[in-house]
Each structure stands twice: as structure tokens, then as C-alpha cells.
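Whiteboard transcription, Tuesday session. T.W. wrote the C-alpha cells on the left side:
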């Protein structure tokens, strides 16, 4: 939602809806397994699910009850236990965590009080923390981000399937005839935002960028195409790999995306407790930045920069303006993008034609997070708000930017300006990619 003339009642209703939706999803992710699964650490890369649950409540308490509501606090004694910067994930099982029943009661009590705070808090004025409901939107986004993290934990978890969802829609009838790439015209465009009331600090401020012409894949790279890279010895040829990526491949004996394995003459994958043949017509998933970069080099292409990705996703050549989303200004709905855990997989390549950009690029929002070539850096004029630990401490060359969201990302955290980031070795996240290339001068004319 974008607005300059704030409607407090509409904003309050939106904030309540975002908080309620996030909590419904949190319950789905934590009520579907027994307590031993909640307290177990299913991978050293992830926290126990019960840690995420109580951390969600603790962040909500700190920001909405204390900072906004002026309460002394329900459980200040657990602040350090649930401080994500105090304790690496691998150490969290050894902490004095709230047991599942106590964690559930805690987050429920916090939420009851938060809704009372929201009802009486003015959403107008000069206080940036509450103006337009920012703090409430920030916490709803925080919970949804942890919900996606918990869904990653579910993917890493061994044992029978605990979650179910219907399949996504099929590819459109014209998918087979789509061009392999589209030309994105060069020139200036507006990157980032200064008007989206719930945008986070690293999305701000809006600023002008100028790019040369370039080509971008119409669709994300699919499993079938990635299998060609594998069959051509892609994981055995150092020519395609960043030096650190080649070391990573050798050290971990990588031969395929995470969760894939060979069974006879067929590749299969494990997906939320089920084993199935790798679907050739879906975007490749669970690949690191190094794998995405190697594939692009093998194809004689490259990963798009973050600015290229955003221009392809937001720029409207007819008006010269940057849209909120590829399809325009409206919030995402199911016909436009695969978001919000409605489906537990990416949609087939060529799905969601109504969500295409003006240039015809599809599936830029939802399905898989898309690696870009860019380091995670601040925009010109960046100001940390409301705390440095959300973005500023991650800036630099260690983290690469991902864009577009995944089937596990909720619409409240998935804007055309939203920036995700992670280490280039990460594979457990719901990450894929598409490739780009420079436009030859004659192609651009």
C-alpha cells in the first residue's frame, strides 16, 4: 500500500490484518508437529522452531509494547536469550528456551496487548516509528520473515510430511512460445522508494539510476536447463566457477542443487518430507550464488545486477515511471504471483501471465528468490531506521542481494523494492535465478 494522505482507520485495519495473517501462519508452522520437533535443531544452519516462535513474540514485545505502547515489559528477562545477534543459530538449542506451551502462551499474551496498543495509538504526526503504522507493519514483516525461515527448517527436517498445500497453477497456454529473453531499454529510472510507508530502511531513499540496454531471461532458469549444465560437467569444470565457489564445490563435493539425489537414471528431490522426480518445468531451487554464477558463465551470460533486476521488474516504458510491482500498483493477489505459502513449491515456468512486467518478463515476484550479481550495499542517502542491526551491519562484500520473493515469502514483505541478502554459500533458502547479458549496440537500436 502506498499513500501520502494517511487514512488512520484504513492503516489501522491494514495493520491488524497483517498481524493476524502472520500469526495464523506461525500457528500452522508450529502446530503441525509435536513438541520434540519444535525443540529439536534440525540443522545447525537453523534455530529450533520454538526459538523462532518465542523470538517473534519477544521482538513484538520490545517494539510494540515497550517502544510504542510504553509498557515496562512482560518478559525483559528473556531479551538476551532471543537476541539474534547475541547467539549464533548453532548455539541456540543450549539456551534456556521457553518450552512450547510457555512460548505459545507468551506470544498470545503479547499479541492481545499489542492489539490494544494499536487501537489507541495515533498513526499520524511526526513520530516516524508509528506514522502510517510503520512499527506494526515492521513487526508483521518480521514475523512473516521468520515464518519463511521456519518453512526452511521444515524443508531441512527429516521425517514424514507435516505440511500440505494444493499445487500452483499450470503454465499459461502461450508459455512454450515465449521468447527466451527480452531487451530492457537503457536510460534512467527510479530505484528504491521514499513513499511506501512500510518499506524498510535498505529500500530507501528513492534515487535515480542510469543503465545501458541489456537482455534478461523472460523466465527463471528451470530445472531442465540446469540439468544440462550438470550433464555437461558443470560441477567438475573450474572454468565456470568463482575461485571461492570452486573451493566450496570441492570442499563439500557438490554435484547438484541441495535436496537432489540420483536414483538410477533419474534425479529426484526431497520436498517437505516427500521424494519426487525433479520437475523439469519448474524454476531451479536451492542453489547458492556460486552455483547460479557458474551456470550463467557456462551459458555465456551473467547474473543481472540488482539495479537491472529492479528496472526489469518496475520500469514502465510507456510512462517512464517505476511501478510498485511488475503488473502495476495493486497489492499481490493469487492470480498475479506465487506468494504466502499458498503452494509448497514454485509454479511451472510461464505461469502467472497476469503478473508479467510491461516488457513481458514473468515470475519476477514470487516462486523463487533470485540471486543478483550485486553486493548488499546501502543506497545513496541511506539512514538506518529504526535500528542498525536490520541492515547496516550486513552491508559489504560478504552478502549478495536476492530479489523478488519466493513461494514462501508473504506479500507484506514482497515489494518491487524489497531487498533480501545472504551469504553466497547459502543453499537451504528458497533461491533460484535468471541470467542476463549486455546488449550489442545493433541489438539496442
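and on the right, the sequence the group agreed on:
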Amino acid at each position: 500500500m502506498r499513500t501520502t494522505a494517511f487514512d488512520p482507520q484504513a492503516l489501522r485495519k491494514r495493520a491488524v490484518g497483517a498481524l493476524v495473517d502472520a500469526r495464523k501462519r506461525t500457528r500452522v508452522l508450529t502446530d503441525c508437529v509435536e513438541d520434540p520437533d519444535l525443540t529439536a535443531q534440525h540443522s545447525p544452519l537453523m534455530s529450533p522452531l520454538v526459538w523462532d516462535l518465542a523470538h517473534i513474540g519477544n521482538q513484538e514485545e520490545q517494539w510494540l509494547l515497550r517502544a510504542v505502547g510504553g509498557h515496562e515489559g512482560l518478559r525483559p528477562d528473556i531479551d538476551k536469550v532471543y537476541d539474534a545477534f547475541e547467539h549464533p543459530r548453532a548455539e541456540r538449542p543450549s539456551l534456556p528456551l521457553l518450552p512450547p506451551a510457555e512460548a505459545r502462551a507468551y506470544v498470545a499474551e503479547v499479541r492481545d496487548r499489542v492489539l490494544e496498543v494499536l487501537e489507541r495509538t495515533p498513526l499520524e504526526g511526526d513520530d516516524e516509528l508509528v506514522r502510517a503504522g510503520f512499527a506494526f507493519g515492521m513487526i508483521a514483516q518480521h514475523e512473516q520473515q521468520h515464518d519463511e525461515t521456519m518453512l526452511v527448517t521444515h524443508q531441512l527436517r527429516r521425517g514424514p510430511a507435516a505440511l500440505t498445500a494444493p499445487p500452483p497453477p499450470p503454465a499459461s497456454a502461450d508459455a512454450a512460445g515465449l521468447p527466451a529473453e527480452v531487451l530492457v531499454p537503457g536510460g534512467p529510472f527510479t530505484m528504491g522508494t521514499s513513499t511506501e510507508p512500510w518499506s524498510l530502511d535498505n529500500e530507501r531513499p528513492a534515487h535515480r539510476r542510469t543503465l545501458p540496454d541489456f537482455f534478461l531471461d523472460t523466465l527463471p532458469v528451470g530445472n531442465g536447463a540446469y540439468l544440462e549444465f550438470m550433464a555437461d560437467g558443470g560441477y567438475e569444470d573450474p572454468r565456470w566457477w568463482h575461485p571461492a565457489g570452486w573451493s566450496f564445490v570441492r570442499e563439500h563435493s557438490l554435484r547438484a542443487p541441495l535436496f537432489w539425489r540420483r536414483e538410477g537414471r533419474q534425479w529426484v528431490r526431497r520436498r517437505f518430507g516427500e521424494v519426487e522426480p525433479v520437475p523439469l518445468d519448474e524454476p531451479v531451487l536451492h542453489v547458492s550464488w556460486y552455483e547460479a554464477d557458474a551456470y550463467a558463465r557456462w551459458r555465456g551470460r551473467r547474473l543481472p545486477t540488482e539495479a537491472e533486476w529492479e528496472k526489469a521488474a518496475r520500469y514502465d516504458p510507456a510512462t517512464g515511471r517505476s511501478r510498485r510491482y511488475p503488473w502495476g500498483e495493486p497489492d499481490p493477489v493469487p492470480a498475479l504471483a506465487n506468494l504466502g505459502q499458498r503452494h509448497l513449491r514454485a509454479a511451472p515456468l510461464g505461469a502467472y501471465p497476469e503478473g508479467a512486467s510491461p516488457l513481458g518478463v514473468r515470475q519476477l515476484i514470487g516462486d523463487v528468490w533470485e540471486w543478483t550479481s550485486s553486493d548488499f550495499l546501502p543506497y545513496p542517502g541511506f539512514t538506518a531506521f529504526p535500528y542498525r542491526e536490520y541492515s547496516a551491519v550486513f552491508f559489504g562484500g560478504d552478502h549478495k542481494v536476492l530479489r523478488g520473493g519466493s513461494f514462501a515469502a508473504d506479500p507484506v514483505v514482497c515489494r518491487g523494492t524489497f531487498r533480501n541478502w545472504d551469504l553466497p554459500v547459502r543453499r537451504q533458502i528458497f533461491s533460484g535465478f535468471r541470467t542476463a547479458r549486455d546488449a550489442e549496440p545493433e541489438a539496442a537500436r
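Someone added at the bottom: The radius of gyration is 22 Å.
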